[in-house]
Give the backbone structure.
Amino acid sequence: MTDEERKILDEQADEVMKDFYDFDEALPDPGDGGGQPLLPAGNYHFQVVKMLRGRQEKGKCAGAKSVELTIKVSDDEQNSATWKELLILHRNTIFKVRQFFLSIGQEVVEGKPFQPDWNAVQGATGEAEVEINEYTSTKDNQQHQNNRVKRWLEPSENFETF
């Protein structure tokens, strides 16, 4: 990736990251329209705006390396939302990692080992099936909803990027 391409990707990430807050800023009241829009379940275009490498600290995959993706998801009518997805490098979840790389156009052959190009992730685009996730918050014991990727889709012939 050239310096100019990296600069463009960083500018795109900065545009999306303006929706995130810093530790020393005043935080808005979520009732003022600052909440995350909920997209209906369906197939959407996505772009990876940020990638952070890390390690799972809890759960069945504790200790496994992981990648936190910040993705911007949009439909043909320009409805969009941004959220984080986690890819965990563990034998029980590796199918989803391979699915992701196939969705962004990297060559993944069934039944053969695959070496991901991690440098090509930030800025990559693809398609995903998005679902509405319902959960009970541990903070307020209330039911909430958010979007998440149900599965990453193979590129289609009629796919148009952002």
User: Anything to note?
Assistant: The chain has a mean pLDDT of 85. The first strand starts at residue 42 and ends at 55. The chain has one domain: 3-17+40-153. The helical segments are 3-17, 94-103.
